[in-house]
Amino acid sequence: MLSAASSQLNEVTFLPPKGSYETFTDEGHYAEKVREWGLSTTKEVKKQFLYKEKNLQYTVTVKGYEVYEKNPEINTIVIEFQDGNLCCIHPAYLKEMQASSFGKGSFSDAAESSPSPSNEKEKTEMHPAEDKVPESPKEPSKKKEKPVKLELPEEKVHFTASVKQFSLSWNNFNEENDEVIILENLVIQLENPIEVGLSWCSHSKTLKKFELSPGDILEFDGKIVKKKLPKGKDVEEQFIVADPVLYKINNPSKIKKG
What we know:
Distance between the termini: 92 Å
Number of domains: 2
Strand content: 35-45%
Structural class: mainly beta
Number of strands: 11
Order of helices and strands: EEHEEEEHHHEEEHEE
Radius of gyration: 36 Å
Largest sheet: 6 strands, mixed
Helix content: 10-25%
């Protein structure tokens, strides 16, 4: 059984607040916070609480609280012992101490190791303002959906598309950037049309005759292959393509500008 030990405060390992802490503005504020921490459920709000340690118990009062700077909803209570010493404690831990069962069984059997505030685990419970904010449960990570594999026709087919932008692509053969056109909304016009999305093709002399601009609608024949757009080297911002472009149009012909 825990015995009264107000004269044995030298047994307590104090964790005083670091610097200033929040105090109560009035009795109403005190009652609100104490009930928020679950320390009092009666009509008359409790003014004294028990602090239990090493088979001893002490009467303490709540003087204020610390606020965790990154999360104002997380508090550390500041309690005062009868000799004026201050100590920080987690609200839930002080609440546990009010139970008559606290200190029995594993508490009294392991008084030398588990309940001592010098123990690292208990320090965390009593002074969470010095520790990290508890992480909220992580939602199960959603697997990225793999892009649908397109069945590309091998023969020359008819396409519709619009010009998205102009870009530059590195050519390993001549070791310089080539001009290319990025097409969007590319559709292979078959009996069952195939939506491709983005594609690219060389800005050839034939295409340059059309003096294309972003937004222009095109119809043309050509062959499509799976070939990722090689990034240009040292290109200006307006030539950078934000999304990956995985398909290339070869030898566009019978071009019509809408």
